[in-house]
Design brief:
Elements: H1 5-16, H2 20-32, H3 39-50, H4 54-62, H5 70-82, H6 87-98, H7 107-118, H8 121-134, H9 140-152, H10 156-164, H11 171-183, H12 187-199, H13 206-219, H14 222-234, H15 241-253, H16 257-266, H17 272-284, H18 288-300, H19 307-320, H20 323-335, H21 343-355, H22 359-368, H23 375-387, H24 396-405, H25 410-423, H26 426-439, E1 448-452, E2 455-459
Antiparallel strand pairs: 1-2
Length: about 450
């Protein structure tokens, strides 16, 4: 079946539209040619207009001259699920049922993805009930999306129940369950599911391996990460961007920065995340100058750095003590790339100035922040004050704020008591120690995790 010439022309206009003015012109053409009764044209127009103006797409949908068929409702629910307002998908799903439409196996995955993105666990549970009543419990796409929704919302027990009740599981099901355990910070359980997957002769794909490599990164287990890498090589799995980036991050986080760099260089296609992970890895391993060089290479490649990229490079400047370079990167982030600084960026600058002994500048950053500093920034600043003899000038309100943010962390009281002791405020020291005793708080000693004979152990 060939597409009529005018429809092809209209599709061309849809593809080229980028502004509200374009939408108005196309809307006018649709109205004048009586295509506002054509469901396919309506669905295409809605999908095209969503990327330009969500409000316009919704207004067009609400004013349709014909009762929208189910696939147009699905288009709206799908587009909202991908938009910054995914909760609207859930509201539309409710409206869909009120007007008498029966959702199909496309509707449920769209609305469940919206529930996941909005962390709407209760609404997701209601959708689950509707799925069971409507007889879609055996649909693999619906069940995989249900599993993903529960895991994303932190209800890993419900996700596991959905997984265990599946009559058949495909690689998507196994990958979703493994990814769910990673999302809920249960890496050991993820490996158990992987072992079960292999026992049932289900071959993992690159998505499965990306999740498993993330678990290795959490555990700091280089040995397991290397075995996953070997599996990918032996089974000739393509080193795509996601898998390559996951391998780079795993090797960097597990201590083998040379291997991480080798894989990074071997990747034929790199995205912004790939570059950022490599820059961050170099910074963490004390190779700050290499991180700065790589950041410049990334910019020359045509990629536009984002807030995460700047966090990585500011961290590198902090580790190296490159104060001027740190100032320049921060200024470029704001003035050239128009990125609004976040708490993490301000924290990097406080740490940069604090390590370099520029405590007054660090204090100036804290005072000029548009938001209240978090506990990480406050501890970083106070440690800098202690290390560089600026204790007598510490703003006591900052110490009080730290204790208010984390009232049950013993190390905060110890830090505040030490600062007060140096300042000669012994009454405050006694008060802080009494408070610790009353709450039963202690400063937890620092420890490191090391891998011994394939087993992770903590060493004090």
């Amino acid at each position: 079946m060939t597409t009529p010439p005018f429809s092809r022309h209209l599709q061309h206009l849809f593809q080229r539209s980028t502004t509200i003015t374009h939408l108005l012109q196309i809307h006018s053409i649709i109205f004048k040619t009586a295509l506002d009764n054509d469901p396919l044209v309506i669905a295409t127009f809605i999908s095209s207009s969503f990327s330009i103006s969500i409000d316009y797409a919704r207004s067009f949908f609400d004013r349709l001259s014909i009762p929208p068929p189910l696939f147009i409702w699905n288009s709206m629910i799908r587009e909202y699920a991908k938009s910054p307002h995914p909760s609207e998908s859930v509201a539309l799903f409710s409206d869909l049922r009120k007007v008498g439409h029966a959702p199909d196996n496309f509707t449920y995955p769209f609305v469940l993805k919206a529930c996941a993105r909005s962390s709407m666990l209760g609404e997701g549970g209601i959708v689950h009930c509707v799925v069971l009543k409507a007889g879609f419990r055996s649909d693999s796409y619906v069940r995989n999306t249900l599993l993903h929704m529960y895991a994303t919302c932190g209800a890993i027990e419900f996700a596991r129940r959905v997984f265990d009740e599946m009559p058949e599981r495909d690689v998507v099901s196994w990958s979703a369950m493994i990814g769910g355990y990673i999302t809920c910070n249960c890496p050991l359980e993820a490996f158990k599911v992987f072992q079960q997957m292999m026992a049932e002769n289900e071959k993992p794909n690159s998505i499965t391996l990306v999740s498993l490599l993330s678990a290795c990164t959490h555990l700091g287990s280089l040995r397991i990460g290397e075995s996953i890498h070997s599996y990918a090589i032996v089974n000739a799995l393509k080193l795509d961007v996601a898998l390559g980036t996951a391998l780079v991050e795993m090797y960097a986080k597990c201590g083998d920065i040379q291997k991480a760099h080798q894989i990074f260089i071997s990747m034929s296609i790199k995205n912004l995340q790939s570059w950022t992970v490599m820059i961050s890895g170099l910074a963490d391993h004390g190779r700050g100058k290499d991180a700065l060089t790589l950041f410049s290479c990334m910019e020359m490649s045509g990629l536009k750095p984002d807030g995460v990229s700047f966090s990585a490079i500011l961290c590198a400047c902090s580790h190296l003590g490159l104060v001027n370079e740190g100032r320049q990167y921060f200024d470029r982030m704001v003035s050239v790339y128009k990125i609004q600084p976040t708490m993490e960026h301000y924290g990097c600058m406080v740490d940069l100035f604090g390590r370099a002994g520029l405590v007054e500048e660090a204090y100036g950053v804290i005072r000029c922040m548009p938001m209240e500093p978090n506990s990480v920034i406050l501890r970083s600043f106070m440690c800098a004050c202690r290390n560089h003899g600026w204790v007598l000038h510490v703003d006591e309100s900052l110490m009080k704020l730290l204790l208010a943010i984390e009232p049950d962390l013993g190390s905060n009281y110890v830090l505040a008591a030490n600062m007060s002791a140096v300042s000669g405020h012994w009454d405050n020291v006694a008060h802080l120690r009494r408070t610790m005793a009353q709450k039963g708080l202690k400063k937890v000693p620092g420890c490191s995790w090391v891998e011994v004979n394939g087993t992770m152990r903590s060493e004090g």
